[in-house]
Amino acid sequence: MRTINENSSKKEVVYEESNGQRSIVTSSVITPEIKGAVILAVGANNGVVKSNIVQVVEAATGLPTHKIQVFEMKMERVGE
Q: Is residue 17 part of a domain?
């Protein structure tokens, strides 16, 4: 079992000036926690392609493989 806990935040100090007085205003951006991923991809019915997609998503997001679902995307041809 593998557990990954990761928080990402960015803090920036901003000064506000009023009547010659500077005061500090802080703001922060908190990124949402990713709980899972669903991917639709052409060629995902091929086991090797599907495995490669899962590995890439796992590496990029840190999600465990059981929380990544990959499905074949059907392409319709227009005019046929």
A: no
User: What gap in Å lies between CA 33 and CA 31, rounded to an integer?
Assistant: 7
Picking from 75, 18, 72, 24, the residue whose alpha carbon sits closest to that of residue 44 is 72
Asked if residue 68 belongs to a domain, the reply is yes
Give the domain range for residue 63: 33-75
pLDDT digits (tens, 9 = 90+) for 28-64: 677 788 899 999 999 999 999 999 999 999 999 999 9
Entry pTM? 0.58
Which residue, among 67, 64, 71, has the nearest Cα to 3 in the 3D structure?
Answer: 64
